[in-house]
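The protein record quoted in full:

***
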Amino acid sequence: MKFLAITLITDTQDPVTGAPTPTRERFRQVVASALLAEELGFDGFGVGERHERPFLSSSPPVVLGHIAALTRRIRLYTAVTTLSLLDPVRAYEDYATLDHLSDGRLELMIGKGNGTAQRELFDVSPEDQWERNSEGYELFRRIWREDAVTARPRFRPELTGAEVLPRPYQRSLRVWHGSATSRESVDLAARHGDPLFSANVTHPIGPYAALVRHYRERWEHYGHDPAHAVVGAGTAGFHTARTSQQAVAAYRPAFARHLAFHAAQGLQPVFPTLEDFVERSSALIGSPQQVIEKVHRYHEELGHTVLHLQAEPGGLTDAQHRASLELFQAEVAPQLRRTIPDPVFPEPSLPEPAVTTSPDL
């Protein structure tokens, strides 16, 4: 099993003082979280894309480009790239550039995105959002693979023998399809033989497991080997400590902030109490053994081989969050890596190393 740390870069307040965190400081915190994730042995670090309050994650390629310069091993993810809102040509240029700057450590998650405000900001109607996402991906995929593209898309000007630069570092980019509630994203992933990443954060596991089953059915329908269908899954919250009592007590202020966020958005929480949240959601809150057992229960339903955790404290103190991540990597991750296999897909296709010769030869 592989493990990602992901952030949506929410505009937060200090968990102790309640004072707003300056935007510059929030980005510094995100970068520090990425460096910590690499230090502790996470396989990937992801940055979401949202274009409305309370998120500051409107430009993942810029944030990930900075992180790429400061890290060496960890893979870099978007979570998710909202192709329904973006010009796929411009998105390609950003991510092909990042692909080079990261030495081929880039992976994308794509999706239509959520939120009325960001859809209105880009003048995208709910009726055509799925078509924009599908068309944007089809064109993005072609540009990545073809040196010159001719296409007549519906939602952007046509291309005639267009050469889009730079050409990518990886010959084929691994693209995950983010899935929350819709079969459209699931079918798009299966059609192209791409991995699926289940959001798995808002509701109990039932609807997410149903979509994963549908993905596997469509995967076979399109003629792919069932053994090669790859699924990742998110978690609604995370904190592990030596005992379940310690973990729950430490997480209680973070859950209170979770409820306050829902109230500010005018939303009714699906899990109204912390105890219900721990029991019925995908949150991993408890002792290391409890976390291991819960991941295995979810694996029985989803068959996932990649798991994401929250990269940032989210209401915990920095010290609490770091201690929790260290405990996860020391006692939880090794056992899950032994008992749940890594995803089955080929390594990214990279160019051959350049051959250099002495100027005297």
Observations:
- The CA atoms of residues 103 and 223 lie 33 Å apart.
- DSSP finds eleven helices and 13 strands in the chain.
